[in-house]
Amino acid sequence: MNTAALHNLEAADRLEFPIPAGVYAERVVSVKHYTDRLFSFRITRPQTFRFRSGEFVMIGLPNAEKPIFRAYSIASPAWDEELEFFSIKVPDGPLTQHLQKIEPGDIVLMRQKSTGTLVLDALTSAKRLYMISTGTGIAPFASLIRDPETYEKFDQIILTHTCRDVAELAYGAELVAATREDPLIGELTDGRLHHFTSTTRETSRQMGRITTSIESGELFRALGTKPFDPENDRVMICGSMAMLKDVKALVEKAGLKEGSNAEPADFVVERAFVG
């Protein structure tokens, strides 16, 4: 068994299967179920683990000789003492059918390296930062809107979240409210953090796909901003594969160029998103 991974987890020595080498074994701190499709959970954070807000890690469960790992964006900011994740529930999903049943005290496995494209280093500074998300694609933005560096680099942060039903927007609504009241960064968000939500199935105040809202101009009218402009706007995109493709095409049409850690530019897309 990899003793370095166990640090203070006394229960880990009672697991049926050994912890793989190079993997952290962390204890579940809390779990919250939002709908029959969505839940969030927090786990302990290894003292040696470092990451940049917006990155993802591979997580799994100690339920097999060769556990299944999937990419999950870290929803907590880099300064948080715990690690937070926001997940879908897939009844027959190789990992999520089991992950959705975790309870406080259970153990979650996490590989030691974090990575990802949705990081501030991949974008050049500008006036506005749009974070375009669908479903659990809001997770990396949950990290970034709670990071003081985001407010140092951009004057205005716009988080969009589109889901099928109103109840699926609850995580984002709670997130934004808590961020505005946070003693560390609450003052930074004042008048600068904006939240645009829409639903595609259940009736709500704002209906339709985010691509439709962008193309029609409804998004910009609701926010009091102008259409995407390379001089003033930067965009991060995370969600379903169809949405990633469509929004990428829209921002490129507006003249924005895709950036990376090696060559920061105007927009970035997370293609390793789970769910």
Explain what this protein looks like in three dimensions.
There is one protein chain. β10 (233-238), α9 and β11 (267-269) form a beta-alpha-beta unit. The two termini are 31 Å apart. The protein contains 9 helices and 11 strands. It has helices spanning 3-6, 96-99, 139-144, 148-153, 170-181, 186-189, 210-216, 218-223, 241-253; strands at 23-33, 38-44, 56-60, 69-73, 82-88, 107-111, 126-134, 154-163, 193-199, 233-238, 267-269. The strands form 2 sheets. The chain has a 6-stranded antiparallel beta sheet with strand order 4-3-6-1-2-5. The chain has a 5-stranded parallel beta sheet with strand order 9-8-7-10-11, with helices on both faces. With 275 residues, it is of the alpha/beta class. Mean pLDDT is 93; it is low at 1-9. The radius of gyration is 19 Å and the shape is globular. The longest helix has 13 residues, at 241-253.
List keywords for this structure.
single chain; disordered N terminus; 275 residues; 27% strand
Could you give the count of β-strands? 11
Unreliable parts: 1-9
Helix content: 10-25%
Total of DSSP H or I helical runs spanning 4+ residues: 9
Name the overall outline: globular
Helix and strand succession?
HEEEEEHEEHHEHHEHHEHE
Structural class: alpha/beta
Q: Which strand order spans the largest sheet, edge to edge or round the barrel?
A: 4-3-6-1-2-5
Task: Give the oligomer, counting copies of the same chain as homo and different chains as hetero.
Answer: single chain
Strand content: 25-35%
Largest sheet: number of strands, sense, barrel closure = 6 strands, antiparallel
Distance between the termini: 31 Å
Question: Residue-averaged pLDDT, rounded?
Answer: 93
* Gyration radius over CA: 19 Å
